[in-house]
Amino acid sequence: MDTDQKLCCSLIKKEHYVGIFWQVGTGNTFTIKAIVEKLKKEGQNVSLNCYTGIACLNYTRLKPLTLHTFAGLEDGRHSKEKLVYRLTTDEQFEKTLMCIHSTDILIIDKVSMVSKRVFETVEYVCKKLKDPSKLFGGMQVVLCGDFGDDNGDYCFHVDFFSKCFPHIVILSQNHRQKEPMLIKAVNELAHGEPSPETNAFIESLARPLSVDDQTDITRLYARNFDADISNYRYLESIPGPLCTFEAEDSIDAFE
């Protein structure tokens, strides 16, 4: 772990509310995994949440939940008060209620996708169901994500943000790329604001490549449709009959 990552672990171990933000390639997923695994080994009940199901795939072994599943938000149509009523009276939310009651530390990844309204709702639900006298009902909360700009209806616009999250750590050491120009280009592209220098760098990479065997090279496509066509062509070239197997899967988000 680098210095910033170790600082994150230290603050969380001291039971602080922490915001962990980063640039591309600074080891955010590695950091979250290390934190969750360490906390669980120490006997803490940690609920790792992501805003989307796709983001949860980064942490499959840690059994993450979507934020909507954790707080029983469903499709977001209900008011804060209605949600609390449903969670406390409807049997279908029994596992949701148990999960909230048992959580010591709530970690939210991809928090840049969480709106002010959703964040306020999650805080309200946790507070009402655990301890009405404390923010988030007394849960320790760790926010993780990447905020590109301040133009959206982000969760850090809530009134209690500065009070609740006095510790903000920015992961800045890039572990994925080594070339300064490449790091600069990746960060600018991630924010949608490439500089003339970055544009010139990208254009310099558009050059013919010498490949002897064109059949085994990896191809990248901008659209899923093009990738599907390419995959289909390769499948068709494989000798033997094409077999189709049907399956029916089910999953319990809390198992």
Task: Give a description of the structure.
The chain is built from eleven helices and six strands. With 255 residues, it is α/β, with parallel strands linked by helices. A six-stranded parallel β-sheet has the order 3-2-4-5-1-6. Strand 4, helix 7 and strand 5 form a beta-alpha-beta unit. The longest helix has 14 residues. The relative contact order is 0.15.
User: Architecture of one domain, CATH level 2?
Assistant: 3-Layer(aba) Sandwich
SSE ordering: HEHEHEHHHEHEHEHHH
Please give the order of strands in the largest beta sheet: 3-2-4-5-1-6
Number of helices: 11
CATH superfamily of one domain: P-loop containing nucleotide triphosphate hydrolases
Structural class: alpha/beta
What is the terminal-to-terminal distance? Answer: 31 Å
Short synopsis of the structure:
This protein has 255 residues and is α/β, with parallel strands linked by helices. It has helices at residues 3-13, 28-41, 53-56, 67-71, 80-89, 94-102, 116-129, 161-164, 180-190, 196-204, 224-237, and strands at 18-22, 46-50, 65-66, 105-109, 140-145, 167-171. Helices cover 41% and strands 11% of the residues.
